[in-house]
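QA checklist item 7 of 12: single-chain prediction sanity check.
[x] sequence parsed
[x] length recorded as 225
[x] structure emitted
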Amino acid sequence: MSLLHALVARGSVVLAEHQVPSQRDFSHATQTILSKIPPNDSKLTYAWEQYLFHYISEGGFVYLVMADDAAGRKLPFAFLADLQRKFLELPSSSAAVLSSTPAYGLQGTFSPVIASLMHTYNTAPPQDEIARAQAELNQVKDIMVQNVEQILSRGERIELLVDKTDTMAHQTTAFRRGARTARRQMRWKNSKTIALTVLVVLVLLYLIIAQFCGAALQCRAAFLM
């Protein structure tokens, strides 16, 4: 998938967000980057690992999406423009109401909208929106790409690294657990194979002896007669 995590925030206060199902939680990374966005109206892209964080900051609200770097910039900014438009169409989008909305106060109502929009842009993005985004990108030359490392303090960089390490540790634990299960299943399969082989050998041996000694295996009596 191209778009992985998206949110709408008032400053650094997240009002609603959605993340596609993933083994890795990006909420801490997005929150860290969100805290570094300047309060003035701006558009910018931050690069982190193989991901890009694109955002539009306008009127005190931030519309942010995290995407694979392979998604480029047209699709994410088209998504953000659409997200901004849908957010401003909310009945409760007046400045007076939103200024007092607590963190995640719109999660129940607007998160499904974000999820639906992400699904649309990940599966069948509207070409007219992408074309409009491309035209805006061509006009606005100051939308730069900045590496996240340049805006984070040493402590924040360590926190993100710890998040990544914890995720890798969880994945390693899951892999080891799966490997142990596979080994147990393999041992059980081998045991059944050996038992079946022994049983077949015993049956064959019985059949061979029975040909000479009879079904009751009375070989001695047969020889005496």
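[x] summary fact logged: The first helix runs from residue 27 to 34.
[ ] second reviewer sign-off
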